[in-house]
Amino acid sequence: MRVLVIGGGGREHALCWALRRSLRVSDVVCAPGNAGIAAIAECVPVEQTSIFDMLRVVHAVAPSVVVVGPEVPLAAGIVDALQGEGVRVFGPTQAAARLEGSKSFSKAFMQRHGIATARYKACASLEEVDAALPGFNLPVVVKADGLAAGKGVVIAETHAGAASAARELMDLGGTLVLEEFLVGEELSFFALCDGKNAVAIAAAQDHKRLLEGDLGPNTGGMGAYSTDALLPDGLHEQLLRDVAQKTVDGMRDEGVPFQGILFCGMMLTADGPKVLEFNTRWGDPEMQAILLRMETDVMDLIDASIDGTAAELKIAMKPGASACVIAASAGYPAGAEKGGFLHGLDAALPAATVIFHSGTALQGDDVVTGGGRVLGVASVAASLPEALQAAYAALGNIHFEGMQFRRDIGHRA
Ligand code: AMP
Ligand code: GLY
Q: Does any ligand 1 atom lie closer than 6 A to the CB of residue 206?
């Protein structure tokens, strides 16, 4: 079987890596891919914001199935376009992807269906923001409505700070969401959905802040780990039943069946788990860690989601732990220095350790930095300390100008 993956980050490198291990997959093509993906799959250029260009690539590649990695092509409606042409495709339709693409939609949806989340107010103008702000305690969370690549959330310590954040975020989307600040541990919970049923895959913990000790600006994620211990005592059943399945049921009832990955960004508060946000795709870097633990053929997940057979699927994970540590460019997340040479990529790796490329490019035969997040070094082992030790040992051999990474991934475990 020939599979086309759309995307070009660490998540897509991990997906291509997992697809290459599937006994049913003969060929993996990735559009656009990156320098690391090019070592294991054929890479073809594509414009991920253009349905027209993605269709051009799909017709040229003629895959048996298309797997969409990032949120941007999902929100643009690539799944609808491909379904319209009878192409098998993994991921939610444009209307279903609004669970991620519009915070005001997803908050109202959660309210309609009794899914626990932070109290909120959607505001269509700055006047509405000013009128609503006194009703929120401090700190207050201000969110842009639309996709913002991790830059659409401000936690404001004063009402004046919230008002000025609202002014800036308004430019991103037009609508804003004001939200009560939640306190607790964050958890990323992943479910496979087929329109009717949700099946738990695993949980992971991301490290969103740039600096050690969870300080500094928010990023797309500087590292993640996954263990079964993240889902103790019934939490697994609770998140599956009260969040993921309720969401799938609600979307179906509203005539917008949800297929693909439902990524539930949770806060485990003293009042129980509450949804911070939904994403409608695999997380990056969470998925690099989770795919290393997954024993089930990733093609089984993709087929079950498309064919509506998720309820029959058992997803098996290795019992130990996995971790992924991101190495980022100087200037990330505000900007990114590109074009620096990567050294040490061919050093021997510890057992069960993989280097996934997030933002790299080929310059002749050399691999150079091509984005903010450059690499994710992931490892799976019997315990989290062993997985982290292997990932950091592998990272120790790698160097590029301005390389930055957190040395404390997994510190909350
Ligand atoms: P989001 O993109 O909605 O996941 O927000 C990005 C990050 O902002 C989350 O991972 C949290 O760390 C933080 N955050 C978002 N909403 C809240 C909230 N209501 N309370 C506390 N922290 C939040
Ligand atoms: N790591 C968070 C995300 O993929 O959105």
A: no
Q: What six digits make up the tokens of 263? A: 């990524």
* Confidence (pLDDT) at 75: 94
> Which ligand sits nearest to residue 287's alpha carbon?
2
Element (H, E) at 289: helix 286-293
Determine the CATH number of domain 185-312: 3.30.470.20
**Boundaries of every domain in the chain:** 2-93, 119-180, 185-312, 321-395
pTM for this predicted structure: 0.96
Q: Which atom of ligand 1 is nearest to the CA of 179?
A: 19
β-partners of residue 194 are 259
Q: Is 300 touching ligand 1 by the criterion CB < 6 Å?
A: no
Do the Cβ atoms of 409 and 222 come closer than 8 Å?
A: yes
Range with lowest mean pLDDT among 6-15, 122-131, 290-299, 300-309: 122-131
The verdict on the CB of residue 206 being under 6 Å from ligand 2 is: yes
221-226-229 Cα angle (round to 5): 135
d(CA 70, CA 76): 11
Report the mean per-residue pLDDT for the chain.
Answer: 95
User: Are the CB atoms for 402 and 374 separated by under 8 Å?
Assistant: no
Per-residue pLDDT band for 31 (boundaries 50, 70, 90) equals: very high
Among 263, 280, 373, residue to substitute to test ligand 2 (most atoms within 8 Å of Cβ): 263
Confidence of residue 172 (pLDDT cuts 50, 70, 90): low
CATH of domain 2-93: 3.40.50.20
Type of residue numbered 14: A
Does ligand 1 lie within 6 Å of residue 99's CB atom?
no
Ligand 1 near 141 CB (within 6 A): yes
In angstroms, what is the span from residue 365 Cα to ligand 2's centroid? 31
For the record, the structure tokens of 286 come out as: 């969470």
Q: What's the pLDDT at 147?
A: 84
Atom of ligand 2 nearest to the CA of 287: 4
Question: CATH topology for 321-395?
Answer: Glycinamide Ribonucleotide Synthetase; Chain A, domain 4 (3.90.600)
Pocket test for ligand 1, best of 99, 155, 210 (most atoms within 8 A of CB): 155
Burial of 351 (0-12, 13-18, 19+ CB in 10 A): exposed
Which residue's C-alpha comes closest to atom 3 of ligand 2? 283
CA separation for the pair 401, 337 (Å, rounded) = 9
